């Protein structure tokens, strides 16, 4: 069963139609790679899923609940509950600079007050271990390299125990040398069957890890499918042109 | 210039400095939160409130503090009908003037601080499920204060120096006593002493803020 | 004696007296920064007589009427000249001391008469009766420039440093300075205008005025005021 | 409050405003280049010069302008021996005080401006074969002024307001006349008029700087 | 004949020895790609050639003239004349933001005052045409994309008619989509036989365009040679490890 279904998603900024009726599904345990040229609407689409952008029309269901139906959003309380099933990792990490790494992980769960502090602290230690940053727990983000920051951001998202993780170009702001460590953490998550949607320019990662690839251009999904097939045998000229440009450079 | 003479001149000046320090503390403690409220008001979604806050800030920053002090101390009591209820004690009037004026400056500083905070901070807070109040108090305000700290330090030093205006509303302060002594004894020495006292006060204040800045460096 | 004798005895009423603390010998600060002077001593005696406590509040002389009308001070009492214009806004006691506005120059100046001020730079205290006296005299139209200072001392110090050619000032005040600093100043022959000092009370407060007047009269009567005058001027100058 | 009355009060105030404007123009025109020289001096490789410049800036920024004005106008003539040669015309003394004070502030602003310029600008100039002087005058200073413009604007508005201090050295200005009228006529109106004149002056100045900022936006 | 010879180049920052005795030659018309992990000293080496860093020991000759001999630099006047044979393109472009594109190109030649303004203007127009930015002549740099900025920077360097062009990671600050246009300009220059030294992470470019590749690690040149050989058959483990990491990500 689909954990995310998007139908007829439309979004404009003023006169500029950025998403022109998008339809797609994501199944549980899918790793979806979203690729496409700059300005094609990838970020806008991803951000719409977690309600960082308000869409103009269309329906988005998450895990069977409707976040927005034909352009009408759910009630505030439901909205919050629905989006809480997702975590998001940003291109520029968006760590809280005034909190230590450990505090970055723990602040949101503590604010939510659903669990004992003990439990939260234990999980933050586990997750820091998982992303290999146990020894940086007490450091402030400013001290970390880009790759380390992004791993903290992933751990922070995982603290809220999401069923789905969204990534918006998680390695684009990193030195090429540092992308590897972040991609490794993402591969591990894929192995653990985390459902993920990843906007990326990393064709290698898309080919290797993704179970599904979506190619967007100009506010539309041009084609989608199994990544191997899409990369080696694109059906449309637009896809072909884009892949050629991306792979050659 | 005997040591005794210096002491005798210094004594009233130090008493005046106490007034300066007291006014400084009162003004800073009240005008910082008031300034922050003004910042929030000026960013309010309600047009009226945001206009009023911005107009207030504009007027306070566009006219001399000295005029504002004279206005509050001598102008208000002259208003028809309500005037007689607006006769404030002169020290209270001075505090009020400084608070009203500095709140506007702090509001501008905090506005800049808020603008400097990346949109990503709000977005990260939102996707982590924090509500607006939590985001404001736990994420935004601490960062805003950190960004604003150097400007706040600057403004505080200016506040110390602006206490020299107190004499216009007849609150006897440091500089007034220095001036009295200069005129009485026909020597420039009290001005030097006053300069040293002001430098000491501003130095200590700067060091305190330097300490705060280092303390909240987040590195 | 202290500047803020204040609330020593709680049942006693405090009367706040606005003064210019740079107006020797009427009210000024001595080497110990204490406020002293003829008007100060007289005020202490009179207020005590009234059964109240005096509190001396140094103010910016420019704002004295504003201070009075706001009620922050109860009296203006520091060589305060009675003028018709001021009578419109302030209640005055009967005059207790006579004075004149005079023009003062440096001792070595060539100026000798009032009309020598033509084309000269003249200083005086802002919003003082010296300004009125000068304006009432024709010479005011011929002086080069009139500069207003926040107190007399600044004006005198500018005269000494040579930025001013003359200062218009209360005779009482310059007399005092001339005994203190001999050979520094000289007074031009003619005085500008005779005048009298009174005590200013807020309009509408006739009761305070009356109490004040009777206490003042009593002290003049019994010679206390005369003693104070002798202490400061070497003679009894009080108007009876 | 007849119209005639307003006019009669306004006339001396506007004359006072002329003094304000004149002093403002003189002070700004001289203190900006002087401030820039101070910036250069404070970055000098010669220790003595850089220390002296920094000390100067520190003292001027750490003591009240009012004290500095009194010092120059009434203090200097009281110096033993040299005092009699230091009797400046009071308007000249006021200008000098404002220039000396504001140069220190502008120096700090320009220092910040210089720091904000990327090292890469110097390197690019060097590899393109430009010498130090060419780099400074053609590449660095224009960018520094651009960066400093908003702060210079702010400081200039402050300068307009600080002219209210002129009363202390007996230069008759706007606020002095307003105060005179208030005390004479027992009405708050002159304070309002003064506020409006100050607001107008600061508004025009701000608009002028906004124009400059837009003009030199480099976009 | 070598146009650049470097021997025993040593450079330290305090106690940190960043270059530990570097030796290499560059022949006329060579395109040298310098690769290596972050912090290995590539930038420092490149910047030493054009006197943006002062070295501690060693000799650098440019076109037969000694910029520095056994750690002793030439006289100021000679220094300037020697470095003027080289142009440099930076990672962050370092355009002059307060000058238009055309002014950016013309300011240095005008300052040098060797040529008539007419001649300078004519060349700036030619070069703008060459990098495809004729229509942007009057724009300020802020208006340009990263790729366009870097092309302006290249044109600006060419205005001084250098015999050698140095590039320090010219495409690292660019969106992947925009690197192509910069690499194309560099390829054109290679075709015109410009001598170039390029510090780069773009293995594709290094393989395709470079005539020589130098692999640096830890302040030393580990190996160098014909790029095809070096990439497919590295002699040292360090090179192998680096290439594996770079090509996989
Ligand atoms: N807040 C906004 N206001 C106006 N237009 C916007 C806004 N955000 C995005 N856009 C426009 O919407 C379009 C799609 O932007 P989006 O960021 O979704 O593209 P993208 O595919 O993520 O591109 P990239 O690969 O560069 O991140 C672009 O034309 C962009 O200019
Ligand atoms: N100005 C400096 N002061 C101190 N150390 C420096 C300085 N510049 C560079 N370093 C150090 O010198 C070493 C080499 O730096 P360099 O920039 O040359 O490396 P690089 O190979 O260009 O790396 P990258 O690929 O990250 O650009 C690094 O350890 C760096 O930290
Ligand atoms: Mg995007
Ligand atoms: Mg480098």
Automatic annotation (TrEMBL), chains A, E:
Pfam families: ABC_tran. Residues 4-243 form the ABC transporter domain. GO terms for molecular function: ABC-type amino acid transporter activity; ATP binding; ATP hydrolysis activity. Transmembrane segments: none annotated. Keywords: Amino-acid transport, ATP-binding, Cell membrane, Membrane, Nucleotide-binding, Transport. It comes from the Bacteria. It is found in: Cell membrane. PANTHER family: AMINO ACID IMPORT ATP-BINDING PROTEIN, GLUTAMATE_ASPARTATE IMPORT ATP-BINDING PROTEIN GLTL. This is Amino acid ABC transporter ATP-binding protein. It comes from Cytobacillus horneckiae.
Automatic annotation (TrEMBL), chains B, D:
The keyword NAD does not apply. Keywords: Amino-acid transport, Cell membrane, Membrane, Transmembrane, Transmembrane helix, Transport. PANTHER family: L-CYSTINE TRANSPORT SYSTEM PERMEASE PROTEIN TCYL, MEMBRANE COMPONENT OF AMINO ACID ABC TRANSPORTER. GO terms for cellular component: ATP-binding cassette (ABC) transporter complex. Belongs to the binding-protein-dependent transport system permease family. Residues 17-209 form the ABC transmembrane type-1 domain. The chain crosses the membrane at residues 20-41, 62-79, 91-110, 188-209. It comes from Cytobacillus horneckiae. It is found in: Cell membrane. The lineage of its organism: Bacteria, Bacillati, Bacillota, Bacilli, Bacillales. One of its GO terms (biological process) is amino acid transport. PROSITE patterns: ABC_TM1. It is a multi-pass membrane protein. It comes from the Bacteria. GO terms for molecular function: transmembrane transporter activity. This is Amino acid ABC transporter permease. Pfam families: BPD_transp_1.
